[in-house]
Amino acid sequence: MSLALSGPLAPPPCVAFGGVGLAAGLLALVGALVVAAVLGARERRTRSSLGRLMTELGASARAGRAAGYPTSPPRGRQCHVDRLVADVASAMTDLRNDRDRLAGVLSGMNDGLLMVDQAGCIALVNPALRALLFLATDTVGKTPLEVFRHRELQELLDLAATSPENVAREIVVEGLTPRRLQVRAARLAVEHGGGVFAIFGDVTEIRRLETMRRDFVANVSHELRTPVTAIRSAAETLPMAMESDVNAAETFIEVIDRNAARLHALVEDLLDLSRIESRELRLRYEHLPLAPLVNQILDLFRDRANQRKVTLAARVPVSLPLAHVDRHALERVLTNLVDNALKYSGAGSVVTVSAYAEECWLRITVADTGAGIAAEHLPRLFERFYRVDAGRSRELGGTGLGLSIVKHLVECMQGSVSVESQVGVGTTFMFTVPVALGGEDIEAQPSAPRGDG
């Protein structure tokens, strides 16, 4: 059973990481440094003028005292002193304001900032870089190699110190949370203090999405190519077989029919997944008893289970509260999970669908006593086209999208899904759906509990 959905195939969005933000940050930082340098020079000139004037006034006062004249400065010079004092106070206020403004910019930056002085030691690290790379507080005064332990980053900073142009490179930082960073470094002019400053942008998630997009395109191409190739080969051979061997012709027709069905299922799954991910799917909620629906789903697989000598069982009490779900979405979830369990269960296995209430949620499990799944595969089971045994899955007619659709549909109904498995023991898929509470809207209910797996 499949949902009647349609819509364009939309691969996962990939947010391009441009250099515009970093370039703007660099320009703003350089501007702030230039302003600070200009104001500093103004302050030094004012202090120097004031120093000379005070020296002159002191010498004049000493000469006046020696000659017996009054020691108070002339009124013109007093006014000059007052103006210089006011200029110094204004310059100091401007410097404090610019210092506070620059500190606010550095603290509010999402990108990390590093400044290295002319001696090659760290002069400044902003909070974003400390948080990004879990840096200690005693980094100032040390070399970047001591702090980061990253040879490629040190080479980048050394290159920026001698290059007239900005230097950019992506580096990978290992650790508890490995990160891929885009680093842009530039040399500071000597009149601005010299040294090098660098801005770090975290592109880990962006690169992950780009990889997912490439994998998606590659997997779709491969999945489409296999049935299309089989259909074309059988169609090319069919005319000759019809003339010489009728039985062989029937075999080729079966091949065409089987692969056409596989191709249709793949296209339908892709369209469904695209519709779900683009949030174009509109669910129609109703208050639904679980027990009749589960029995109906198991009846669809009864003949196939008997052929494979697999036992189907339901443990869903009729006294369970009603579920607040979209009927077709829940049917699709249960159908995919039961179908998946049957595919990988051998003769003598048991597939059991169970359900029980848990506060405002119904927890539903589909368990089998099949071969089980190794632990390293469990985190990726709900990824599109991910297969534990690719060859066997294609042989059994799977599209590789069933579990991904299950995850998205359950989350659309505000539930959660998880999996537990042990090799040689079996696999259990668990998901939650909301309980129908007097017709309340699903959005008014608390978040779904996470699965144990």
Q: How much beta, percentage-wise?
A: 15-25%
| Uncertain residue segments | 1-20, 64-71, 439-453
- What topology, given as strand order, has the largest sheet? 2-1-5-4-3
**Could you describe the largest sheet, including whether it forms a barrel?**
5 strands, antiparallel
Secondary-structure content class = alpha+beta
- Note the gap between the termini: 27 Å
Radius of gyration: 36 Å
Order of helices and strands: HHEEHHHEEEHHEHHEEHEEHHEE
- General shape: elongated
In short:
By secondary structure, this protein is an alpha+beta fold. The chain contains twelve helices and twelve strands.
Can you walk me through this structure?
This protein has helices at 20-67, 75-108, 127-133, 144-148, 151-162, 204-244, 246-277, 290-300, 302-308, 327-343, 390-395, 402-412; strands at 112-116, 122-125, 167-173, 179-187, 196-202, 285-288, 311-315, 323-326, 350-358, 361-368, 417-422, 426-434. It is of the alpha+beta class. The strands form three sheets. The chain has a five-stranded antiparallel β-sheet with strand order 2-1-5-4-3, sandwiched between helices. Helix 7 (246-277) packs parallel to helix 12 (402-412). The two termini are 27 Å apart.
